[in-house]
Amino acid sequence: MKNSATYKATDKIAGYDCRPGIYTLNGASAMLHAVNFTVHSSKATGCSVVLFERGSTEPFAVIPIPDSYRIVDTWSIMIYGLNIYEIEYCYRLSGEYAPEKGLLFNENTNILDPYARAVTGQSVWGKKSGAQDCYHGRVCTDRFEWGNFAKKEIAFSDLVIYELHVRGFTKSLTSGVRNNGTFDGVIEKLPYLKSLGVNAIELMPIFEFDELYEEREHEGKKLMNYWGYNTTCFFAPNTSYSSSVEYNHEGDELKTLIRTCNENGILVFLDVVFNHTSEGNEDGKIFSFKGLDNNVYYMLTPEGKYFNFSGCGNTMNCNHPVVQQFIIDCLRYWVIEYRVDGFRFDLASILGRSEDGTPMENPPILKTIAYDPILSGTKLIAEAWDAGGLYQVGSFPSWNRWAEWNGRFRDDLRCFLKGDNGMAWAAVQRLSGSKDLYPPEARGVNASVNFLTCHDGFTMYDLYSYNVKHNEENGWDNTDGDNSNTGWNCGIEGETDDSKINGLRIRMVKNAFTALLCSRGAVMFFAGDEFCNTQFGNNNAYCQDNEVSWLDWSRLKKYKEVHDLVRDLIAYRMKHDVIRHSTVPSSMGFPDISVHNTYAWNDKFNDHDHVIGLMFAGKDKKGNDDAVFIGFNTYWEECRMELPSLPGDHYWGIDFYTYVPYKKGTDFDKMIHRDELSFTLKPRSAIVLSARRRKQP
Prior knowledge:
The chain is an alpha/beta fold. Helix content is about 20%, strand content about 25%.
């Protein structure tokens, strides 16, 4: 395992020439003739580097790091003569084993380096290889050529975010890609995404995770941790998402995806999970943080048990200074080495809890991320709640840097669109930028990510095909998943041959996309929603590595009308600046945003009102006056609606009308009963109009 290079070293340890390492260089780093190993632990009394031949479960060398190589809590050693292409590594730490004190040291336990840039053991999805009780790290080198990569700048309000699962996006054979379920498969679909008009993709967890965590069978079907919200290593991309084994150049395929996205004007956000790890609770494995500094990295009770604000067994102690540094190091790594454009933080409210679990007013980790100079150009998006009951939508600590998944937008618009009473004014607030939640003077204009669907919950199609969740196939007797779906099955639960109900369902989907894509704030939707992908009523498909979660691309042809509407609404949104943000005031005399009901300029709503109108006005980029009016009738009967008067040289032209089949170029004015300033809006429909200049005779 040694090479013939000549070098000068100071000590012979376990047959290897060694010297003190570089203490500020975390993890395992390839040097000219050596490998530098650095690891931290505040309570360990000793540390060894354990070396394996590639693919082996038994070490060929255990190299204790001398105390003279230790500076307080940091061990660092440089080992010469190693062939990085043939080795794997981990650590063993000695110290006190006292679970009641939160100490779990065992000198015989192999511990994965938290800073490992590649992890062995599961290069093939769903198959365990190598050691069954531990993970090994690999020493990586960077050979990737970024070329003339230049960071794309897209204003927050211009974002159209497409959330996707790397495996599920192309795993189905209907996707038509070469390497199904991989980063390469996503690359093959980028022309599709570009034509759709999205300008950012948000990848569900791509850090190394154990899909076999809590693997089980239910009614003959294999269930696993498909979503990936159970991180094994925070610095390593998931090896099974690569179409080929990359060994010591781990991440090249992901980097190619990011570079190709950049070339096509698409940002890449990562869904990161710093709230818990896959080591679980007292019954979970000890393979990384637990064996390094259990009572530093995790929130523990006085009895040494695990707080569980994540709902997944443990909770990371994010505001401990050591953990803060680890998180910052990790985020910086992905920005520097992978050029990612932003992060969505899963259960981000946990990052705002103190070491005893209580919420903090100004959490240090959130403030540090907000002001970090390396991260200053990245988009930061919080899922502003956690499983411990902390809900911070509209109040998440921000420093004018943090945006939020606007859960109120989702909940209020879902209720309004299906016809609930008393939701008209709430819908107006959400569509116009949720200024009640995010006052511009306090939060700026870059706070709200508007969404109606995401990976967690119903798909857009299922939202209007099911009243209740159908998670029986998850094996928990339908007790898992959210019970508050605010969905509506339009009259029959699940699939039906009733053409009227199916027609209504498609209209409801079109209404929902119209609301989303004509709202102020960044917008996001879940992959496949644009062609009515279904999960058959499952609203918690975290364990379904099968047709339940995989996108069925054959539906793209079946639901082309919806796809084309979404594509054209995105283009329309980009064309009309007044929808996305405030502009220079128009000379028409209209305010930036105005609210209307069945009567123009009447912004008073009662509980029984189901009709709203919203007008955006200003100037476009060329300095021309522009006005867009969106109207919704969520009632079961048609309603008459008035439009604001325009200057004499303008008139209202209809651009979208969901009550009739959509096809680009349709003359909707001929398909609706209207006069100059009023029209009849059919039941459960939406309309979008714009001010057009009259042709001169």
